[in-house]
Amino acid sequence: MKEDFSKYNGEGTKLRDAQQCMLGILVQFDKICRKNNIVYWLDGGTLLGAVRHKGFIPWDDDLDVCIQAKDYPKLREALLKELPDRYVLEDVKSDKYFFDPFCRIKDNNSYCNYQLFAKQKSQGLWLDVIIAEPAPPIWYKNIVDHTYGPVFRQVHNIAECHNEPKWKCRVKKGIAYLLYPVTLILLWIGRFCAKCIDNGLLIHSYGSYDLRLRDIKLILPVREIEFENNVFYAPRDSDAFLRNLYGDYMTIPDENGRQVHMDVESVRFNIN
After folding, report:
1. Segments in the chain forming alpha helices (H)
2. What is the reported pLDDT for 163?
3. In this structure, what CATH number is given to the domain that contains residue 35?
């Protein structure tokens, strides 16, 4: 018997309203990328949803796209110039409380109670723009993620300090500033090794804690795929790409395996 997913994102539910809001961000992102000849692709659960559901995974509450690191400066410039006023680009350069090694586009006409965004400029619903770069040996990526990653987050005002005494936060941040140059050297070594190896594999940015490899031959040239009655870019061979990430991705997980990220009941709209 086919499962009824309307309990998650049926019309009129808070989650469906949130998904439609995030879809609006993706539509704007796609428009800007196409205008500026910037290649991106749907990634992770967003791509899985496109293939398995032709849209959002019914219980999913975020969106992921990916671009190559070499294209990020061009993308950032285009987004800052061309995003409509209701949307804002957030990264470590634009928001001192932003702490991830990628960027987000947020909708300022929305609000969600998500603790990690508490001090950031916008608490709106978002699109994750993940940055992919050439892969070093995966064991080395793991080392950098667990050294550079936490230090990077402390240096960039990571929200992990929100529930700790101020003195403890200051000690952590002081140690992080001392270690930061060392972890940057580890990062540069990883990028140098990746350039030398040139194995045709991509990783999500250092510090993302994602150790899964993406084969660029499965991604480029990108093709179009349907998602929520719109058309976006996806890897050339989405099936093989998803099997590499998830294995048997067409099998619906049981309810315990259906991950959510935010308190969807806290979502509000038209707050400006």
Report:
1. 6-9, 14-35, 44-53, 72-82, 138-145, 148-155, 166-197, 216-219, 238-246
2. 65
3. 3.30.460
Domain membership of residue 268 (yes or no) is no
Residues 189-229 have pLDDT tens digits of: 999 999 999 899 999 999 988 999 999 999 999 999 999 99
C-alpha 111/C-alpha 171 separation (Å) is: 32
Final residue of a structural domain among 144, 167, 198: 198
pLDDT of residue 122: 83
Looking at residue 271, what is its pLDDT?
A: 63
DSSP secondary structure letters along 15-83: HHHHHHHHHHHHHHHHHHHHHTT---EE-HHHHHHHHHHSS--TT----EEEEEGGGHHHHHHHHHHHS
Q: What is the per-residue pLDDT for 204?
A: 94
How far apart are the C-alpha atoms of 142 and 260, rounded to whole Å? 25
Task: Say if 91 falls within a structural domain.
Answer: yes
Provide the residue range defining the domain that includes 173. Answer: 136-198
pTM for the model: 0.90
Low-confidence ranges of the chain (pLDDT < 50): 1, 159
The answer on 101 and 19 residing in a single domain is yes
Q: Give the length of the chain.
A: 272
Q: What is the pLDDT of residue 1?
A: 47
The answer for residues whose C-beta is within 8 angstroms of residue 261's C-beta and 6 or more apart is: 61, 62, 114
For residue 218, give the 3-state DSSP assignment: helix
Instruction: Tell which residue, 203, 160, 207, has the closest CA to residue 183.
Output: 207
Chain CA centroid to CA 61, Å: 12
